[in-house]
C-alpha cells in the first residue's frame, strides 16, 4: 500500500492501532448527520473546503517527512499508490463536489484505503509525526467518502462505476509500464509483495491480478447497486420516497 520508512516500533492491532480504528468508526458515524445538517443550512461548500484544507495539512507533510527520512527513491517515493491518489482526489472532491471526483473518493476511499487501515505498512508508532500524518491522511480519505456520499448526498450510479473502472484501468496500465521501466512495484502490479499477504490466496503473477480485479469490480458493483435501486424506487402517494432519494 503506502510506503513509510522510519525507525520506530508500530505493533499491528496494538493499542494505538485499535484506538485509530475506533476513531475511524466514530468519525464516520458522526460525519453523516453533520453533513446532512450542513447541507440543510446551505453550508456544504464552506465545510467541504475546511475539510479539504485539513486533508492537505496531513497529506503534504506526510510526503515531505517520508522523503526526508528515507531519502528520495524512484522505486518507493513517488505518490503513485491509489491511497496517495485517493487523498489528492478527495481534496478536489471536497472543495468542488465534482461528481467524478466524489465517485473516485467513494470507490477508492472506502474499500481500498481501508485496506491500509487494516494492514498498515507503517513502522512509526505514536507520537511519532509519521504515525500522526499517516493515520490522519488515511482516516480523512475514508471520512471524506462518507461525508460526501451519506452526508452531502452525492451518490454514485452506474456511469460513475464505469468511469471509475476506466480511470483505475488507466492508472494500472500507466503504473505497470512505469514499474517495468523503473524496476519499482507500485500497486504490487508487477509482483506480489515480499512479505505474506492476502494476494498469496489469489495465485502467482499475473493470475492474482485478474483475481484482484474481479473482486474489486464485484465490490464496487455492490457499492453502487443500493444507491441506484434507491434512486429508482417509485414514490408513494405522498411523494416521500422521491424526496428521500433526492436528499440521501
Description:
The chain has one domain. By secondary structure, the chain is mainly alpha-helical. The N terminus and C terminus are likely disordered. It is globular, with a radius of gyration of 19 Å. It is built from nine helices and no strands. Helix 2 runs antiparallel to helix 6 and helix 4 crosses helix 6.
Per-chain topology:
Layout: H1 15-40, H2 44-70, H3 82-96, H4 99-109, H5 113-118, H6 129-151, H7 158-182, H8 207-232, H9 240-247
Tags for this model:
248 residues; mainly alpha; 9 helices; 0% strand; disordered N terminus; disordered C terminus
Summarize the model shown.
With 248 residues, the protein is mainly α. It has helices at 15-40, 44-70, 82-96, 99-109, 113-118, 129-151, 158-182, 207-232, 240-247. It has one domain (15-247).
> What ranges have pLDDT less than 50 throughout 5 or more consecutive residues?
1-7, 237-248
Strand content: under 5%
Helical fraction = 55-70%
Nearest-integer average pLDDT = 83
Count the E strands: 0
Measured on Cα atoms, how large is the radius of gyration?
19 Å
Shape: globular
What structural category do the secondary elements indicate?
mainly alpha
What summary fits the major beta sheet?
none
Which H/E pattern describes the elements? HHHHHHHHH
**Count of spatially separate domains:** 1
Distance between the termini: 32 Å
| Helix count, DSSP H or I runs of 4 or more residues | 9
